[in-house]
Amino acid sequence: MRSRNVFGAMMAGVGLAGLMLMAPVTGAVAQEGKAGGTLKLLANAAAGTIDPHINYTLQYFQINYVLYDGLVTFRKTGDKTGFEVVADLAESLPKPEDGGKKYVFKLRKGIKFADGSDLTTADVVASFQRMFKISGPTTGTLYNGIVGADTCLKTPATCTLEGGVVADEAASTVTFNLVAPDPDFLQKISIPHAAILPAEAPLKDSGTAPIPGTGPYMIASYDPNSLLKMVRNPHFKEWSKEAQPAGYPDEIDYGFGLTDEAAVTAVENGQADWMFDPPPADRLAELGTKYAKQVSVHPLTAMWYAPMNTNLAPFNDIRVRQAVNYAIDRAAIVKLFGGSNLAQPSCQILPPDFPSYAPYCPFTANPAEKWSAPDLEKAKALVAASGTAGQEVTIITEDTEVSKSIGVYMQDVLNGLGYKTSIKPISQNIQFTYIQNTNNKVQISISQWFQDYPAPSDFLQVLFSCASFTPGSDASVNISGFCDKSIDKKMGEAQTATIADPAKGAQLWTAVDKAVTDAAPVAVLFTPKRVDLISPRLKNFVFSPQFYWIMSQSWVE
Questions:
Q1: How large is the average pLDDT for residues 486-512?
Q2: CA dist 477 → 26, 127, 473 (Å)
Q3: Among the listed residues 181, 193, 196, the one whose alpha carbon sits nearest the alpha carbon of residue 141
């Protein structure tokens, strides 16, 4: 899904023969269940603010899809149709007008927020203005193509998006005007950062104070130290089963603070129903045998990677960045994550089975389409040519076991290349924002990226375009500070071509993937798989390629 606080616990050296790569349940609702009861979820820690326009974590994106709605959303189903955009608060998907620069949405009638107020066109306009006024993390990357966005990015407090988002209250329509055609526009407004909130929503991060939404659930209370409690939205009436089906549980309790070990035991025994964090290493063999029916493994369109600051020594030298890529033994890192059942080596930006993906790995011994082994000789030659050996380097990791273990491995790699390397673990609650801010002078870090939407621009343009780099900001997802005008131009050409000729656009995005990979602003390490452990009383576990577990569609017995 996206780069944010993400599951991670070291799972090295454990056999997973009993864990099945399970096919997801298909259909928006695979079978009819029974409403009622309380669904009990666990996570090591909360994921920060519950403001849907600000939070950029996988953990809370997953719940925001049942709390909030956008004009459009992804189909809530457990097969590949889960990547398809469908109408949500809008009556239907609009057809692009004005050469792809204009979209007119007509709102459904009778939809209310959880506080009982009616959804209006004014709420839509105010919500998009709010995203910019509070400097949402994706306004400069996903929504900067809306007319007026450039002014809003410069002076957020006075944002109006004049001419860009225009309401017609009488007709119940909202018109979006874009600076240029964008083939991914509907996908971009399908994620929680484009959720429609009441026009009166505070123009600041709401923190722990819930904002009313239109989904089947609402937040009753939130204490980041203990519990996030969600209950039914009394004003919700199902308007589209494929966009926002009614939920089964009466209540969803998300508890925080248990250790991984304690959480596994609780889920095994049915005292809790699911855990966000993966099971720890010493429990996987047990789960793969005794509790195999309660475990599923799913491949993800995602990557673990090491961003390198292209504006700070020694990584402002492309030879050093390429040297790191050549020196990494990706098979060793895969073992740290849990082995080949849970990850596969990769050294390109786009993940397998993703639009425009074509196997490519220039940073490997005996270059081929896929990574095979490190090339230390070539790596050391590049460092020698750069003249940077002996410089000090600090690696910023999350304080999770797997992130720290990968950091220790990377420390050995960098020391072997001649650098003086140290590691600085930071709480996973703040590490992602910390490594984005140039004021912290982060040289290299360990991070993850999970798709926001299924298009190559979400990896390539969002992470590596000049527009996605904002110095001094906690919301600058171009962590490497990479800005190559020629590659930026290629990205624009790929976007434009995708509209008129999707096949040509796909080819151009493949070329962009190779160009960014060659420039080595990051070292891609591997693509992960998701391990889900559920309780014996939880039924109808639907795994979406976009949302992952669609929790509202499960029930408990």
A1: 94
A2: 33, 22, 9
A3: 193
